[in-house]
Each structure stands twice: as structure tokens, then as C-alpha cells.
Amino acid sequence: MGSGNISIQSEELERLVAAHDGDVALLWLYRLLRGSDAPEDAARALCRTRAEIEAAREKLRRMELSPPASAAKLPPPDETPEYTAKDLAVRSREDPRFAALVTEAQRALGRLLSSSDLKKLFGLYDYLALPPEVIMMLLNYCVSTAPAGSPPSMRLIEKEGYVWANREILTLEQADEYIAKSRRRRDQLARAAQLLGISGRALSPTESKYLAAWLDMGFGEELLELAYDRTLTNTGGLKWSYMNGILKSWHEKGLHTPEDVRDRDTRRPRGQDKDRTPQNLGELVAGLDKI
């Protein structure tokens, strides 16, 4: 970049200091000076491993202090850094933001956090770089969606945290929007399940997948009820694959209202064909008399 002056925003420096991560700060300065953060070059220049540089690059991206990386999602939780008890003790003592987060997390979950729990919480804070206030919204959201009397495990919270990180939910406003959208979807699924006669139990993963797909196709309750009625009429029960076939057919034909189906659907329920077969000899004779 030459020897000219480099402009640095004080806000960026404050966020780097708050991160308490030397590798992140070094990589940020290296990129500022060299105009690049190619992993191999940065690792050699900073005397770090490539894995450490990759982790720092990802954290910088999540802190919005570097250009967007590839669209690849984060690795699963079992591939994240393994924090030691010493790491946690030092950060709990030296980082008041994390210490406060631990206190609030224990209050929200109604229990003391185990060593394993603390490592997962620290991963959300350190590796995923989710802001503390966003993590608290994540915790409260997971508590609110857990079965009554059964607080969520930190493993479940960690998995949901990865969903938030991959969706780049990094502000309170983004978290509010995601939570509101999730609640609307849960309400839609509950109403659809009730319409199909499912109550008193949770939906299975397969049932949830079918219902979510139908809602994503744009079908409202009226069309779901109509497809359910045809499924019962033709099969004698709720056959998910059969009902899915009806709705996929309607979707492919652009039929999304009862009027569309009535006017344009050529596949009629059994027993409602216009040219049905005569049921007895009397009907057959009556039909012949009209010829």
C-alpha cells in the first residue's frame, strides 16, 4: 500500500480491543498494511498456523471488519476450537462482558453452567463472535420454545447459535425479525396440524417437513383442508405422500385458491366423475331409454 498515511476508525479499534483476541488484531493489521489476508502468506508473516489464520479471518468477517468471505457455512460445532478450563478462567476474570454473559445465561436457564456448558457459551461469544446481547436473545428464544418444565441444553442452544451465525444475525433488530418470523411459522404449522387432526403431540420431523413445504408453496388453510378432504376420500386416511402429490400438482398448475381448483383441476375425487359407471340395472335401462 506504500508509505502513505492509513486512516483507522476509532470504532474499529474499540471492537478489536473488545474482542480480546491477539490473532484477530494481528490479522486485521496485516491486512490493513498488505491489502490482503491470503492464509498461507499471513500465516508465514505472523508465525501462525493456517488453521489459526482461517479462524481469525472468519471471526473478522463476523465482526464485519473484513470483506465478506465465501458463502460457505461454518463448520459444525464438533469442529470448532476446543477451549481449555484456563481459557475460560482467564476470560471470565479479564473480560467483564463475558463474565456478565455467564451470569445472565445462568439466570435465563435457571441453573449453574457446567464446564461443558461454559465452553459452548464461550464458543458462541468468541468463535462465532455473536454480540452478548444477541446471545442473550438466543438463550431466551431457546428457553421460550422448549417444552414446559424442560429448559434447553447448551448443545441445543449451540446448534441454534450456528443457525443465527450462518444467517448473520448480529444485531438486536435482526434477532427480533428472525424470532418474529419463527413464531409466525410455528403458529402456521400448529394450525395446519390441527386442521389435519393432529393434536396432543409434537409433529415428527417428516410431518414438519411436509407442512413446511406446503406453506412455502403458498397454500393457505382452505387449500390444505381441500387436499386433506380429497386424501381422506380417496385413501381412507391421512396419507402424507398422497396429499403431497395433490398439492404439488396444484402448485405446478398454479392453482392456489379454491376457485382455481374448482375451475381448472382435472383430477377429481373418486365418486365424483361426470361419466360414472351405472350402479345397477335400473340406471342402465334408464340410460338406454334416453338414447
What does this structure look like?
The chain is an all-alpha fold and 291 residues long. It has three domains: 10-71; 85-170; 201-291, no CATH class. Helix content is 65%, strand content 0%. It has helices spanning 10-19, 22-34, 39-46, 50-62, 85-94, 96-109, 115-126, 132-145, 154-166, 172-195, 205-216, 221-235, 240-253, 258-264, 281-289. Helix 7 runs parallel beside helix 9 and helix 10 packs across helix 11 (205-216). The longest helix has 24 residues, at 172-195.
Summarize the topology:
Blueprint: H1 10-19, H2 22-34, H3 39-46, H4 50-62, H5 85-94, H6 96-109, H7 115-126, H8 132-145, H9 154-166, H10 172-195, H11 205-216, H12 221-235, H13 240-253, H14 258-264, H15 281-289
Helix pairs in contact: 2-4, 3-4, 5-6, 6-8, 7-9, 8-9, 8-10, 10-11, 12-13
Q: What amount of the residues lies in strands?
A: under 5%
Question: How many alpha or pi helices?
Answer: 15
Tally the structural domains. 3
What sequence of helices (H) and strands (E) makes up the elements? Answer: HHHHHHHHHHHHHHH
| Stretches with pLDDT under 50, minimum 5 residues | 68-72, 272-279
Report Rg.
Answer: 29 Å
Structural class: mainly alpha
> How helical, in percent, are the residues?
55-70%
How widely separated are the two ends? 95 Å
Q: What is the average per-residue confidence, as pLDDT, rounded to a whole number?
A: 82
Main beta sheet: none
Number of strands: 0
Principal-axes shape call: elongated
